[in-house]
Amino acid sequence: MAMAMTAMDVARTRARNRLAGWVIGAVAALIVLGGGVYSIWLTNTTPPAPPLPAGPPHAALLARDSETDMLQGNFVTQTELYRTPENPVQVIQYYRQLLAKVPGQVGDFLQQGDSILPSSAPEALQNMPSIFASPVAGNPDAANYFYTEYSSGQNDIGIAVDARSPQGPTLVYLEMFTGSDS
Question: Do 133 and 162 lie in a common domain?
C-alpha cells in the first residue's frame, strides 16, 4: 500500500535536502578554514629549530638537505656536508671548542664510527653519506670517522669527522633530526 507523494511532499523533501546540503557544505567549509587558521597559527607560534653547528674553518659546503616527513612521524631532518683542508685533529679541536658548553654529548669525538649503515651508525647519524665509505675487505659500508652527538630540546644533532686522511683534506657531516610531540 504505497502512497503516492503529492507535489507538496516532493517540494518539502527537496527543500529539506537542499537545506541539509547547505549545512553539510557549511560545516565542511568551517573545518577547512579552521584547519588553515590552525596551520597558520602553528607556523607563527612554533619556534624554529636551532641551526646546525657552523661548518669548520676554511670549509666548502658540498651538500645541504632538509627533508620533512609528516606521514611517518612528523619530523624534519637537516644535513650538511663540508670539505675542509684542515686535518681531522684540527677539525675535532674546532668542534670541541665550539661545543664545550653543550652538556650530554655522546661520543665526544673519542669514539670511532666504522659503518655508514643506519643500523650500525650512531643514533644521531642515520643518514651518513656514501662518500664516507671506505670499502675494505669487500664491505661497501665500512667507514672511519670520529663523532659526537647530543640533544637540544626536540633536536638530536650528530657530527662526524672523516679520519681516512690524517693530513687532510677532511670531510665533515652534520645531521639534525627534529621530532615532534604532536
Answer: yes
